[in-house]
Amino acid sequence: MSRTFKKKLINLTEAFNNKLNKIHFSFTGIIYNPLDYAKDNYYEYLQNYVNEYIDNIFLGMNPGPYGMVQTGIPFGEINYVKNYLKINNTVNKPKTEHCKKIITGMNTERSEISGFRFWSLIKSKYQTAELFAEKNAVLNYCPLCFIENTQKGKNITPEMLSKSDKNQINICCDEYLKNIIMLIQPKKLIGVGSYAYKRFCKVSTLPTFYMLHPSPLNPKANKNWIENEKNFLIENGIWSDDIQK
To answer: What backbone phi and psi angles, to 5 degrees, belong to 54?
Structure first.
């Protein structure tokens, strides 16, 4: 594994995060940035599970309040982060929190359904995360989570933000995504959900595939998502049909 690659990856991500933190949003709710308060987990994840010259990059949209917002890991369902990825560092408190979206970090007891489904799919093919990372990587397009400043604390996805806020995010995140693709040099790109797929198409001419997002808010994802998406990956030549042990 190239030390030069890892250094470039970390430096690129730190510069990206600094740019994100300088954006002045019109959004008046609470913004969680796990690359700040859960950075020990995230940078360990980059060190261990993001490699160069791989086959595929899977891209999510942004953190969910019970997944990456808590653990700092893309699609970061708590049990998979601890037991499959074997990451369990201290997660600090952000500067501000919503009373309904408190950060409990690695002590969180709520399993994120999207993350559970996603990493269950991964484990059905690769019995260890190390094997998965030899040919694949998982990232999020935007590491920020936007929570409406209301009693309920609704999760606001990037596509729901104002045009000006969305444009600022896209400029910053597109640049990082383009640089990450150039650094990693994958063969194929898989957008998990339409938003991630569109951003891949915007910044790269590599073969790009749309994969149904595992969110329970999507009715289609509630019908055999793991089996269906595994078949999709095999049928499109992204994965072989064997199990890696």
So the answer is: -95, 175
Q: What residue segments make up the domains of the chain, in order of their start?
A: 3-235
Residue 130: φ, ψ to 5°: -65, -40
Query: Beta-carbon neighbour count of residue 99 at 10 Å?
Result: 8
Classify domain 3-235 by CATH number.
3.40.470.10
DSSP of 144-175, one letter per residue? -EEE-SSSS--EE-GGGS-HHHHHHHHHHHHH
Q: What is the pTM of this model?
A: 0.97
* Token pair of 13 as six digits: 């991500």
> 235: which 2 tokens?
């049928």
DSSP assignment, residue 99?
A: T
- DSSP character string of 186-239: -SEEEEESHHHHHHHHHH--S-EEEE----TTSGGGGTTHHHHHHHHHHHTTSS
Give 26-77 pLDDT, tens digit per residue: 999 999 999 999 999 999 999 999 999 999 999 999 999 999 999 999 999 9
- Return the closest-CA partner of residue 158 out of 20, 13, 35, 50: 20
